[in-house]
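Narrative of accomplishments. A recurring question from our advisory board has been how the design workflow behaves on a single, concrete structure rather than in aggregate. To address it, we present the structure tokens for one chain from the evaluation set, followed by the sequence designed for it. No filtering or post-editing was applied between the two.
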């Protein structure tokens, strides 16, 4: 019985240590100021967050680093697919994490955050987040 308790204690301590050292950190992106189902008025602000990776400007491919893209009324991109540059795929290649000027027509829209490397190649579904908002 004492051996089982000791093994359990050691396991709990290892998991705790891994988590505090970043070993258990989940990777992903998230909307800081918006939630699925929110209602907004144009123009509106979008704050973008990331865990498990670091934001840096486009231009070089560095492991564990990249920048945000906002896809309007579209979906996440397969890993390695380059994010297009058009009015529906907005690049934040300067390393921006906030934009104040998103203007959309009234109605229901999806917003997808897509994190990509320095050459705009998507990190895939794991590094994306889609929400639905209503614009008044």
């Amino acid at each position: 019985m004492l051996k089982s308790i000791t093994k359990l204690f050691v396991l709990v301590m290892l998991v705790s240590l891994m988590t505090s050292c970043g070993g258990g950190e989940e990777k992903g992106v998230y909307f800081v100021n918006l939630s699925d189902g929110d209602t907004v008025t144009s123009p509106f602000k979008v704050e973008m967050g990331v865990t498990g990776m670091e934001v840096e400007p486009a231009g070089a491919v560095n492991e564990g680093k990249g920048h945000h893209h906002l896809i309007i009324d579209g979906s996440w991109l397969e890993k390695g697919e380059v994010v297009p540059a058009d009015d529906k795929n907005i690049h934040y290649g300067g390393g921006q994490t906030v934009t104040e000027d998103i203007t959309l027509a009234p109605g229901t829209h999806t917003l997808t955050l897509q994190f990509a490397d320095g050459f705009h190649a998507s990190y895939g579904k794991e590094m994306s987040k889609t929400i639905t908002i209503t614009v008044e």
